[in-house]
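User: Fold this; tokens only.

Assistant: Input:
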Amino acid sequence: MRPSWLRGGRTQTRGTTASCEINQLMIIVKCFNNNGRLTGAQRFVRCFSKFDYQEFEEEIRQRRQKSKNEQKKTFPDQDEQSQDSSSGSSNSYSNGEKASVITLPQNIARDLTLLNVPKYVSREDLKKQYHKLAKIYHPDVMQKHEYSENQRLKMEERFKEFNQAYERLVKWVGERDKTLDDDLLKGLRPGVKVNREDGSVTYTIGKLQLEGKRSTLDRQQLLLEMIEDDLNLKEPVNFKRYLIGIWLLFGAYVFYKDFKSYYAHLSTPLENVDYTQSYFKLIQL
């Protein structure tokens, strides 16, 4: 049986034990890369010997380079694509190019509000929303229902507004998506990885990674970051609503004052009144 100092028992000092554990971890990693095994004697010797960190780093670097070379031989096309994307990204940054910012004009913001769609809406969702409104306001649909002439004119005018807004939004969404795709291909957006295999694209935002030709959540987040203005449009002031509210508050205040004075008047006793005689007179009547 080995003595306790060979087994790393309690007789070792705290500093020696800590250095022993660190060296053991480093040696295990190194020998794991070499596909070798350690014996108890080797572990003991390495614990108290000076570990050559430069040699360890050099060996790790050589192994990484070797694995990269093997990967190039196995997947040459993938390596070329990664080099193209990385070179394109570095060239874009070196040329001073910046990610695009899409402005949101007031008319487009009103159109988005009119059709009740967000600014990151896709073409498919925009088309669905337009068809949903057309089923209600289209002139051919109105003929199947009994509407007055005034209602028909208002609904036809409303449908024209929807149609014009839809045409403007289709054009704006196309330009918006083209700008985003160009930025992704040029590598102007850090945190977004473009994988050109099979035409697929991988968007990476923080810990979120989604793959596909048209992903949804990550693309929405990118569009929210790209579009400069927000849809915080101020509604027109409705003075009628404010006047009604003020009138209700004033009426409640007047009612409270009248009720308070009336209650105080009831609680005040009357002078020179014999309540007993008045009570018996009422009974006799």
